[in-house]
Amino acid sequence: MRSLLQSTLDLFATQQSALAPAVFRHPRANREIRLGDAIVAYEFKRGRRRTIGFVVGPDGLVVSAPKWVSLVDVQAAVHEKASWIVRKLAETRERHERLVSTRIAWNDGVVIPFLGQQLVVLLDPRHGAAAVLHHDTGAVPGTPLLSLRLGLPRQASAEQIRDAVQAWLMRHARRVFTERLNHFAPQLQVQWSRLSLSSAGTRWGSARADGSIRLHWRLVHFRISVIDYVVAHELSHLRVMDHSPRFWDTVRSVVPDYAELRLQLKDETVPQWS
User: What is the pTM of this model?
Assistant: First the structure.
C-alpha cells in the first residue's frame, strides 16, 4: 500500500513539474514578467539610447531603455519580443548545461577526446616523470583503445593531472600541426614561417602576411580531418587575406568538404578544461 502511495505521489510530482512554467532569472533582476509558459526575471536599465534594447547572455535577459520611455511601453516591447526572448533564453540555458556536462573531472581514469578518439588518462608512477601513450588492444567494445600513462603518484591533485595532460597534449598538438602545415603548404603554393600555439577563447586559428600561423592547441581534441580544415583555412589566408569567394575557392581546392567540417567544428562541444 505504501509503495502504491509513493508511486502516486511520484506521478503527481512529475505532472506538476511538467505543468510548472520555465523560470529564467537574471542574478541582478529587478523586474519580472510572464511570457507565455515562462517566467522571466530580467535586469532593467535606463541609459542614453534611442531605442529599447534586448540582450540575452549567460546570466539571462537584460533590457535597456531610454529615460523618456514609460515602463508600460517597455513591458509592451518585451511582450512583443516574447517568442524570441524565451527561445534565446532556452538555447542559452541548454548550451550552458551542455558545457557543464562536459567539464572534465581530473582524476585517475578520466576520459578525454583526442584526435577524435577517446583517451583514458591513467596514473602510473612506474613511468617516473614521463607521459606515455599506449595503444591498447583487446579492450571491451565501446571502451577507449588509447591510454595516456602519467608518471604521477596515485594521490596526485586534480591540478597536477590537468597540467600534465595539457603539457602532453600541447607537445602532441605542435607535432600534428607542423605535419599538416607541411602537407598543405606546397599544395597551396605558400610558405609558412612560424607556428605558435594559442589559448584564445574565441578563435581556432589566425594567419599573418609574414607567414606566422597561430593555432589553438585544443584543436587536438578533434579528428584530423577537422584539424586539416583549420590548417588549410589559415594557410589559404597567406594567398587571400579576406573571406571573399576567392578565399573559399582556395580552401576548397585542398579540402573539398570544408563546409561540412566547418559545421562540425562549430557544433561539437569541446570539454570544459577547468
Answer: 0.65
